[in-house]
């Protein structure tokens, strides 16, 4: 089988380097371009001293036309807004997997309410992109050439709620993320002294991942409370949901999905450094299900899912490049 | 004013040393005996090299009769079961503040169900001890000579729910504790490698602090879900409650209680190393209140509250010995 | 005794808030002005939600003339260069304790080499300021009205070497600081994700605290190697020195210095949250002394020493306001 | 190529599970037996819930005769003393890679002095085992059927000193390890509360890895000071050496060794989760070289090196099963 020619636009952020880590151990991938506007020809080993053994790779400012023409798939690891601006350079010319929020929602108004900027491409919001959550949309992903990769909180909470789809009266969710969820952008709230030993919630019921959760769960806004929270650790998200439902969880939704594990107890270190999502469901008091779930926010919450999507788009084994068999322990 | 003669039985655990830290900066206290069965005459500075500057204090195996006779108040920092066995040595002879769970509940059956051991002193469960939560029982504490100091999770959750007492249909609570909550007893689940970067719940709806919460909140067992959780940090508990209620929070319950602060946002590092409990309440979707709270589990969650109780019992300023004015920051 | 009127210029950084924590529990201090150019009349409780219980204090942009006139002592918690600019507003008009590096060195050329900016006040470098290390210069501090408070690394290393003053052939020192040593200035190297689990040295033999160490130790530059290092924790410095000397340590230099403890083993958590410096000395192989020391970088390494200096300047007990009797444990 | 049949004795400790992680992604390995006395037939997924997706593997109490007969190589992940007792069951019958200290030294007396137990197999100390440090003894490893895998501290320090072999007058080394270096044996010094925020040295100049360092470096005991230290993190060792030498480092010793990288600056997170050792050398003052190095103590410091040794013994690519191309970041 010939190798898939892959390019990455925006490789220097946390999700870009995590993606690179996956691609480098993917047997069917050839890295074509690592693109960054700030660097043209800088060896990767110079940008990232931790990669000093990788002589052959360099980050370039290659024009997008060339990148599109010579790549089978392009990963866009850019923030929202920046992604919108470059998507037309690639769309229809090659396959795209977009890490940003710009094409996750189907509705310009919702986008603008949560992101506080105008959306430039309303025409692309009606199904041009497929939402890249393989456990829900695998068939659509397989046929698409443009994927909107989910938000990390959204991805976990959607799968946590999935076994109750259409059968929930209400859901209350708190999800605690490591500090790497904030991205590589130095500012007070991600300082080590500020984060050490701290827990705090932010944007309760106002987080940007909320509309993604609503879209797949069938919940209405007034049926969901969502408290995004940051904890004093590097990687991982641990979610706890209290779900008002009489239904038993329909765990068959996860059949044939290799990266979801149903557990008696969820522990965050069981999934960090792997592509697994661990989920548990127990019947609580008062018609509530106590649901817990965990994933690695940078891997399964971003770059690992992106690689899953690529594998599905190219018809190869969904786990390829993601065979981190065992969580790093301890 | 003459000094209060204070003794501590079981000084070598985490709550014992934290209590000592408070007592040593208490202007109205004289430390009489630090009692431990394992040590007789060992200088404190030898037991705890961090206290090497405290020449004068030693840990002794003084008989309880002498301790009771010569102390105005005795703090019992022993685990449950061990406390039961020694309580008769002190009760009625001096004032007692008991850190254990042995006299917190009013009902032998509930005790035995949660603690899995027989209770030896059913006669002492009917009001002989006052539950030492000053924000609820201050008047009773003032008149009592025997206090059952609350459990750390229980203390925080009770105050979190207090503004809705009698007006809740249901409450779902998750509370995340630091690893010092496990006490000083080396075993696998508190190993540093096991705890680093980990979050996990345990004993969901089965934690021993549950009946304390039910007793003061007026909730029935089937109205409460409680998920005790351990996180990768040393000190502090962060609690998040989703409370089903139409009522607005009655914050006047905290009037004249110097250690409760109502905040817009709760952050754990705002309370760790202080005796404060921070609480916040916001109206969520679907008739739910999103309530958050935090405290330092060893200080306000145990030893600080014990000192509050002592201050109230002796009619002195409730904040004496607890004037840690500012949380250590960063 | 009437209270000392104290003002703080630059109260919002880490050392400023730590100083405030000390001053608030100092029995002989009255806080006069908390000065910051960015805030005029902002309640402290608004600037720092963790201080929401402190109603009475506000941060103001009071002119320096007024501050000097109405204060018995002014603490300048400003970075170098900024300190130089405001020192003339206070010098000779009130007592000054300056946290910056601007008046620690006696030599304009050395200053300019290490700090890469011109020094505006060469005239003030010849003894106008006393170097504020009480264990060495207590008598001079007592007579001075202008103190240059030491750098945190410099303070620890100087005391580590002090018992061998004049008798060392060579010293090799590595000192590992917590991330709070970097100050409150969000930037990549202090991000939580960057610091978590990381250790790295920086500015080896080129750190700005080096000339302070040389000045008091009597070592020449070619006799000292100094590797400043950052570790994955919040507070504390742990120093390890290999000292080439035939002499035994002269520990009498620490007689009557209440904040230095000589230990068999140094542990960082024994000093963090206290004003102690712990030191140990053992004879190694090949004529080397293995010296270890630790302190809390924000407390004893900055604000605690500043309070010691104030106490000495005003002739009151050196430990006043610093009676954190016990390190927070665990 | 037919697969190498591999068995592991003592798979439940930290090095055992880390070894398993490597073997599971090794293309030329077939796992034959995972042996543990405590478990017979327990699925791995039951012992380690993090491995719940690995249905096929079980831990058994298979007799050693069978294990030896059916395995091409056996890894012994047992503590010292326990290893001695079982080595005769395997030696000469199959290839052995022993993680313990029992066969690392060539001298019974030194062993007994450092380990405080008698050595039962003096006859096996004279070259029967090859010391498994590939960067020094690769040729001997290739020809041997019995390897003594190095200690983690020893491995790093030996490579740190190697470029100066025979040319050092003296070396002073401090090495800081994460808490996973203590192994999976719950006890006070590895408790999370005890380790959080702490740094402490132990067994200075008396650590059991010392004789391994002396053996390969050519240093005499009186020429080396070694301060083993534990820091508040999970994985990794960071070593700092001050080396008295006039020689320049002979970096050619690392030619053709794929897992050693010479860097300008060493950072611990650049190597944790990889099999790399990063080293840096700078000329300090007074004829000293400042040498720094780092590795992942469980991977390169134990199980990764063991896999390297296996690869060399079987004549396959040294990096096989160790292609963790990129350190997990952040």
β-strand amount of chain A:
15-25%
The end-to-end distance of chain A, rounded to whole angstroms, is 37 Å
Q: What is the assembly state of the chains in this entry?
A: homotetramer
Class of the largest domain in chain A, according to the CATH hierarchy? Answer: Alpha Beta
Helix content of chain A: 25-40%
| CATH domain topology of the largest domain in chain A | Rossmann fold
| Helix and strand run of chain A | EHEEHEHEHEHEHEHEHEHEEEEEH
| Whole-number tally of structural domains of chain A | 2
The overall strand count of chain A is 15
Tell me the overall shape of chain A.
globular
Radius of gyration of chain A: 19 Å
Strand neighbour order, sheet with most strands of chain A: 3-4-2-1-5-6-8-7
List the helices and strands and how they pair.
The structure is a homotetramer of 330-residue chains.
Chain A: E1 4-9, H1 14-23, E2 29-35, E3 42-43, H2 44-47, E4 58-60, H3 64-70, E5 73-76, H4 82-90, E6 95-98, H5 108-115, E7 130-131, H6 134-143, E8 146-148, H7 152-161, E9 170-177, H8 192-195, E10 200-201, H9 210-217, E11 224-230, E12 237-244, E13 260-262, E14 277-283, E15 288-295, H10 299-313
Parallel strand pairs in A: 1-2, 1-5, 2-4, 5-6, 6-8, 7-8, 9-11, 13-14
Antiparallel strand pairs in A: 3-4, 9-12, 10-11, 12-15, 14-15
Task: Give keywords.
10 helices, 2 domains, Rossmann fold, 330 residues, homotetramer, Dihydrodipicolinate Reductase, domain 2, seven-stranded mixed sheet, alpha/beta
């Amino acid at each position: 089988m010939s190798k898939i020619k892959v390019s990455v636009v925006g490789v220097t952020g946390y999700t870009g380097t995590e993606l690179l880590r996956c691609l480098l151990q993917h047997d069917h991938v050839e890295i074509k371009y690592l693109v960054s506007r700030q660097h043209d020809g800088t060896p990767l080993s110079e940008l990232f001293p931790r990669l000093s053994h990788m002589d052959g790779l360099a980050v370039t400012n290659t024009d997008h036309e060339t990148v599109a023409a010579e790549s089978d798939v392009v990963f866009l690891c850019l923030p929202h807004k920046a992604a919108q601006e470059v998507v037309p350079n690639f769309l229809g010319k090659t396959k795209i997997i977009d890490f940003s929020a710009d094409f996750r929602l189907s509705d310009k108004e919702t986008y603008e309410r949560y992101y506080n900027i105008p959306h430039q491409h309303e025409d692309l919001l009606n199904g041009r992109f497929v939402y890249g959550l393989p456990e829900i949309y695998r068939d659509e992903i397989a046929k698409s050439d443009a994927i909107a990769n989910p938000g990390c909180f959204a991805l976990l909470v959607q799968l946590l709620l999935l076994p109750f789809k259409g059968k929930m009266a209400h859901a209350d969710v708190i999800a605690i993320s490591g500090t790497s969820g904030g991205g590589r952008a130095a500012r007070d709230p991600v300082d080590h002294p500020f984060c050490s030993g701290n827990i705090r919630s932010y944007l309760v019921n106002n987080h940007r991942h909320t509309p993604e959760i609503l879209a797949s769960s069938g919940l209405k806004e007034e049926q969901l409370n969502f408290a995004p929270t940051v904890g004093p650790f590097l990687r991982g998200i641990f979610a706890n949901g209290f779900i008002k439902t009489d239904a038993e969880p329909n765990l068959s939704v996860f059949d044939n999905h290799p990266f979801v594990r149903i557990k008696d107890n969820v522990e965050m270190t069981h999934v960090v450094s792997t592509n697994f999502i661990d989920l548990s469901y127990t019947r609580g008091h008062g018609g509530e299900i106590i649901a817990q779930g965990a994933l690695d926010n940078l891997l399964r919450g971003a770059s690992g899912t992106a690689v899953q999507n690529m594998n599905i788009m190219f018809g190869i084994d969904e786990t390829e490049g993601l065979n981190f068999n065992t969580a790093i322990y301890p």
